[in-house]
Specification:
three-stranded parallel β-sheet; globular; 9 helices
Amino acid sequence: MTYEFSIGSAKDKGYRVIHEKCRIRTVEFGSEDAFFWIKDGEMKDTSMVAYPRVQDDRLALVAFSGIEDFRPLFDGLTGIEVFSPSPDSMRLPQTPDPGDTLHRDASNIASVIGRLEAESPATKDRIQDYLSAIVPGIHSVRREAAGAWETLSFQQDVKGARHAWQFPSTSVSDGTLRSLAILTAMLDTAGTSPSPIGIEEPETALHPAAAGVLLDSIRDAAESRQIIVTSHSPDLLDSESIEPDELLAVRSVQGTTLVNRPDAAAQVALRENLFTAGDLLRTDQLQPETGSSELSVGGVEAA
């Protein structure tokens, strides 16, 4: 399936939908694709005999989601979660909640860890294994009750001590807390259809040596759900295993943000293992391909 749209400014200082295209490619023999193409609030082409009213002040996909063919796309897009963990919020004692979904800032991480302890210990073990590799010495994390509140405690090996020492979340680093939240967001696949998730700057506050482990955890999680990562870290991208098709390069040009596949020179360098994506980023050679297929955000028009 493919879906694209562009947004432009309106005379009343608001915004309007310049164009919107959607095509659902079917796999059944003899069936036809479901699609629509709208420009400036007018239907230009569609596979539907009857369709909802369209206007240029809103995306038509919302109205089309009532049609069976388009519902999976709508559910997939609206189900996307984006995380930017806040260590300060994670350190504060929190009111217990069901822990079904990790909050964007990971402020309810103790509730989520508590749920995993009870319902999915194997998932919690995977999270702890990666956390131990990223932060040597830490071998477990637990939900702890504190009166009517709850918080986290970390068990860490200390040289000369017979048993692991226990540290509250207020005594561990930002990098440790962020790593725990990112691993939990990626590896907790509660539900039958885990939605795509986005992680902002997962390498923040991490030692560069941990970037390889973080990349391994992202690839592991990507086996069961789509993971979208934004990063400025050459260390995270320093792997010959990264393929050009896994990357989108971003560039700001005269107030417009261009997002596209890496340009032809970068793709050749990556496919022939001449450079890693991290090498290209360090030398400012990871540029988006320009052309009609580019995605632009900002300025007068966005897509």
